[in-house]
Every structure is written in C-alpha cells, then in structure tokens.
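Example record

The entry below shows one chain as it appears in the dataset: sequence first, then structure tokens.
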Amino acid sequence: MRIGIVNDMALAREALSRVVRSMPAHQVAWTAIDGTEAIENARFDLPDLILMDLVMPGVDGVEATRRIMQETPCPILVVTATMNGQVGRVFDAMGHGALDSVETPTLGPRGELKGAAPLIDKISVVARLIGKSSESYSSFEIPVVEGPWLGTLVLIGSSTGGPNALAEILSSLPEPRDACVVVVQHVDAAFAPGLAKWLGERTGRHVDLINGGERPTGGKIYLAATNDHLILDSMHRFRYDPEPASLSYRPSVDVFFRTVATYWSRPGIAAVLTGMGRDGAKGLLKLRQGGWHTIAQDKETSVVWGMPRAAAEIGGAVEVLPIQRIGPSIVRRLNQATIS
C-alpha cells in the first residue's frame, strides 16, 4: 500500500516512516506536517491509507479526517501519542470515518523503534480490508443448538463512522426494560472503555463493557470490549474467543450474530450500520432467516456504505433505513414485542 503520514513532530514522522518501510509491499506516499497539508496532499495524490495524528496546530486530526472523508475518501487510522484527555476527539474522528486508533511508536535514544507492533497489526488489517493483501480467510461455522428465551435482544454491529451512528440510535431508545442492547463496534480494546464513556456522555445512557462469563440482562446496554471475538455460548453467557484468528474484523459482527442466531431461540432485532467491508452481512442474514427483524443503514447516511450494503445485497435486511429512522424502528418493534 501507499501510505500518507500526517504528524507535526519530525521524530514521530520518522518513526512512522520506519514502520511503513519495515513492512513488505508498503511505502510512504507522502508526509504532511498538519491537517491542512494532509487535505491538500489527499486531493492531488490519494494514498491507500493515511496515518493521521490527532493533536496538531491549526487544522487538527478530527477536522482533517472529516474533510478528507468528505472530499477524497480513503482509509484513515488515527495515530496519536496523546491519549490522556483526548478520548472524545478520537471518537469524533472515528465518527467522521477514521477506521481505528493506535498509539504512535517512538524512537529510542539509539534510534530504535519502540511500540511499533500494534501499528503494524493495524496496517496489516487495513491491507486485508481493501484487498491489498494476499492472506486468505477461513469460514466460521457453528452447530445449531436450541436454547431457552431470556428476553428480547437488540444487536448492533458497526465500524467506520460507527460511534456517531451508535450515539444517534442509543439516544433515541427509551430505557429498554426487558430488552438488552449489545453493540459490536470495530475498535481496538485499548479504546473500548473510552468509547463506552463517550457514548454515555453523548446519549445519557450507561454503557457497560462486556465481561466474559456474564449473561445478557434486561435494561442493559453492552459493548464488546476486547480484540477477540464476542460470542454467546449455549448457556447464554458472553465469551471472548480469538478464533477464527484469520478474520480482519475484530471483534467480528458476523461471529457474534451467528452465535446468537444459534443459541438464542426468540427472535429479536438486529442492525448493521456504516462500515467498510462485509462483516455482519452473513450474520444478519442468518438472524433474518431465524425470524429476526433486521435493519441495514442506508447509503445516504453511511460514512462508508460497505457493511450495510453487503447485508442488503444478500437479502439480510428487512429494512434499509437512514440512521435517524433506525432508532424509532427498533422502538416500534420493542413495543410490539411487549404487547405480544
């Protein structure tokens, strides 16, 4: 891949450039010292990926991400050394279309790279997502086992642009009472606690990170919390599983949706929101085939119409709706379930 680097610190640009050069088949397309230069570079030389600093003088990483995704969309990773007090800005950038966030590697006193592994992993994931990698994928199948009903589940899967979309939906939901909302957002485990807090501040609703071994509970909003895949087991407990290891999307919406379709006997409501790729499409279809009411976000309100488009194309969605209508649709279905 050709990768653009945006950072106002010369040492950081050098560290990022070394990381890119250390990876076969990747090269530095250009470097920029601030958001303004990054926007201009993207207009005239659009790379396959941009590594975007968050805190810069003038146009910062949030605004640069918004402008680039609006004018010349391409994959963007937020790479920042300043996380303390910046969590809200990280998720603002993700709401505008950044794929994920990772800490900036550093150069030691002898010029050695430190902390490069997480960034290398993220770049490899993006390469697979946009078809710039030759790595293969394995399928994930689960034996069908019936399980008793414990309530109404509302499942939401999201990726690029997901934080803002999630905030829109959760803000429109009443206290779920007998329903349980479970969110799987593609986000690194290091940022999951910040996302839960950010969503709570944006929506006025408490969002709990999922602990392995606990069970869904009515009145709760849960968020997947690790880089492993969230699953629901035959005893209706949440678990985390590193397999299938070959999946780029972590945690995978498909993996979670399929386990719920297998082990949760009463149909509920599921939605796939904005995001790059096809994760969630097959899982949503499996839920629809099991009688669930399924929703995909429409093209006009999606930051990236990849995941919901894939779900719609294979017949996984009963409804394709703009983001502002998804929450009310979920409420109507919950009310119908309560009446019945």
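Notes for this example: The chain has two domains: 2-129, 152-339. Residues 323-339 form the longest helix (17 residues).
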